[in-house]
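SEQUENCE-TO-STRUCTURE ENTRY
===========================
What this section holds: a protein sequence and its matching fold, both as plain text.
Tokens: labelled as protein backbone structure tokens, with as many entries as the chain has residues.
Question of interest: how does this chain fold, as expressed in backbone structure tokens?
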Amino acid sequence: MDMQDAAERADEMLDSVLDEVEPSVLWVHGPTTAGNCTVTRRRTVMTVVSAQRRGSFLGVVDRFWRKSGYRVTSINSHVDAPAIYVETQDGFQVSLTVADKGQVHFTVDSPCVRRSEVIDSTSPATAFLDPEARLIPRPNIRSDFWSAGAPEGAARGA
């Protein structure tokens, strides 16, 4: 496996977990980074996941990852910034972290693989991100389900 293969495997993992979330959430790509022999793919959820729905969201992801044979390596139960860290059978490190304003981030780090060029993900993002944006904004798309109980003021969407 080379770094491009690892990036594609990471995209498959990210696609499958985000496809599992119902109702669906909208997301954008985070930066892809490549080390000497590793690659990291990231996705950031732009749908507001309220504090009241956060446990349900983490539960959906946790159950899916366990069902997929991933081994849980750590769980952070912090009320405002929970996280789940898992490892796949082939050595990929996968995480879900909740950051400021309840924004959910998914990250996949590959094991050390053969060095190669890595192209951008071909998985189409489901939320718009201004190509000129230097940073990913806070979640700004409301969902009748996932944003329930969250303060108003974010745009409507999914």
